[in-house]
Design a protein that fits this description.
The chain is an alpha+beta fold and 210 residues long. It is 51% helix and 13% strand. It is built from seven helices and seven strands, in the order H-E-H-H-H-E-H-E-E-H-E-H-E-E. It has a five-stranded mixed sheet, covered by helices on one side. Strand 6 and strand 7 (204-209) form a beta hairpin. The chain starts with a helix and ends with a strand. The protein binds iron/sulfur cluster. Iron/sulfur cluster binds next to loops.
């Protein structure tokens, strides 16, 4: 698919998310600002970027029932997933180490707008990887792990979001290492009004989205 068509699809997705969750997005500002003020952090000042993060939090809230971090998928382990609820248990450690939380929603109080731009670019490099997509088969395994969470970056769901914008037709076959990722994809497909099913595949799982 051409770069122009991929960008158009991404923009369409953004608008759909915005319209679907717009009342939730406004409500989110309250806890986001409250947390930032309490901790002396700055909230990401870029409206498009911030809205995208909030749409992903709203999607996660609908899929998992809790506002799991917009950059990671639920693990299925209740204790770990609790730590991933935004603002997550890792945010303060991330900010102390790098100046921002992993997703660049929050940053140190002295972060400038330009610092946010640079941080967002770094994150995009980690997430907009060259996918292991051959024809309509996406293998989501063997990606790097985040330092302190030891979770995939990008996780299978983020890879699928990219792949769906790149393939010109469905079905999309997705190989995932963990059964929980396959279950998450089924939830995601339901949200997007797509059909999905999965089955064991070698030592992993194959999900078909159509
Ligand atoms: S990394 Fe940032 S956006 Fe993600 S859950 Fe933690 S605080 Fe929220």
């Amino acid at each position: 698919m051409s770069k122009w068509k991929t960008t158009a699809k991404m923009y369409k997705d953004f608008m759909k998310g915005y319209l679907r969750y717009r009342s939730d997005l406004k409500k989110m500002d309250q806890w986001i600002q409250k947390y930032a003020e309490r901790k002396g952090f700055r909230v990401n000042p870029h409206p498009m970027y911030l809205t995208n993060l909030k749409i992903w939090i709203a999607e996660n809230q609908e899929m998992y029932g809790t506002r799991i971090c917009p950059c990671f998928e639920a693990t299925g382990d209740a204790k770990t997933d609790r730590k991933l609820i935004c603002p997550c248990s890792f945010a303060e450690e991330d900010i102390a180490k790098t100046g921002t939380c992993h997703c660049k929603l929050f940053a140190r109080g002295d972060f400038t707008d330009a610092d946010f731009v640079a941080a967002e670019k770094d994150l995009m490099k980690e997430y907009r990887i060259s996918l292991n997509l051959v024809g309509n088969i996406l293998d989501t395994r063997d990606v790097p792990k985040s330092d302190n969470r030891q979770m995939d970056v990008p996780d299978p769901l983020h890879q699928i979001k990219q792949a769906l914008n790149q393939v010109s037709s469905l079905p999309l076959e997705v190989i995932v290492a963990r059964e929980q990722s396959a279950i998450n994809i089924l939830q995601f497909a339901k949200l997007k009004k797509l059909n999905a099913e999965f089955k064991p595949f070698e030592d992993a799982f194959m999900v078909t989205i159509q």
